[in-house]
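Anyone else keep sequences and structure tokens together like this?

Example one:
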Amino acid sequence: MTLQLRRIVVCLMALVAGAILQSQHAQAQGAPGDYKLLAGDKIQVSVWKEIDLQRVVIIRPDGKFSFPLTGEVQAAGRSADDIRVDIEARLRKYIPEPVVTVTVEDVGGSRVYVIGQVNKPGVFAMNPRVNVLQALTLAAGTTPFAKLDDIIVIRGTGAAQTTLPFRYSQVTAGKALNQNILLESGDVVVVP
């Protein structure tokens, strides 16, 4: 078995193990309903018995979207249920007892970037969350020239950026698993 193939097998095994642990963690905390919307996400808003008030909207880069009779609605950083309550309250001026449904159609705003010595560098959608090993798997593994114990995750923007180390050999050996963090939207995984 070649070194590259071994790396891919290890990444796939870590992906499966991470998915199982993440699923168990999400079930324990009820995480699916806690998703906070981001710019670029697509949601469907519909008002019962109001054909003109049913549409799919994309959250703009400023974190808002426009909806008839409600004006600008702040969406980024809020859950679908928070938005539903907000729209219902605004519509009460025009519609008695409005029934609003807000569903997440696409989490296009939740993205992570993987660059450097990987086979497919690029932007990857997180649906809903991925860890570092899973991101490396999305990038089709590392090249033979990758410095696996010098991988870093860059988080934040501007002066508030921080770097988080990721030592591949430690994590794949089952040690220092706390390095295999769940990535946040906008994180950059750098594989030197």
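And example two:
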Amino acid sequence: MKTVAIISQKGGAGKTTVAIHLAVVAEQRGLRTAIFDLDPQASATSWADRRKSAVPAVVSAQASRLSNLLDQAAAQSADLVLIDSAPNADSASLAAARVADLILIPCRPAAFDLDAIGTTLNLAAVAGKPAWVVLNAVPPKGKLGEEAAEALQQGGVQVAPQALHQLVAFAHAVNDGRSAQEYDFKSRAASEVNTLFGWLTETLMLPIRKRENSQTRKRTNAKTRKHN
């Protein structure tokens, strides 16, 4: 089982967006996946409440119970756990970082957001875990994303090779408990998530099974028929 902590000091960076989209595509690829929601705002839990599917599992959690919850997930043969942390660098975020195999840091390509990632990177260093920035809500036109990635890399920061752009599919999908892949599997948003997940799979050496998740497939097919 692999564990990914999604951490950002700054609110609105897109932690929950990254968590739920990676979780859905992981289930679609045959991985038993859970999201542990540590954020007091409970955005991932609210998304799950609107969702007409039991997968991916979303658990409202407390940092003090992370170890026990991870043991339970492993006992239930989970393949991947994504921890959606609170928007600050407190003890809960440090606890998430310490149990993670890898840390993702969502960040918008704006000066204030880029300046704020230093604390999160320091937290990852304290935990002794590898961390990558995932640029999120990047304007679909222009070179702002490329420029932000280059600036971060020049500063010695690891940047995931796939950014997520500010696309309507992301917003529309989560309104009723779906992901962009389920909203429109041919969309640019779905393609970006698939590419990001492919990179994560290689980085964590996640096993991709042939088991197809019928619940995520049915939701995607139903939406496709509706459009047609």
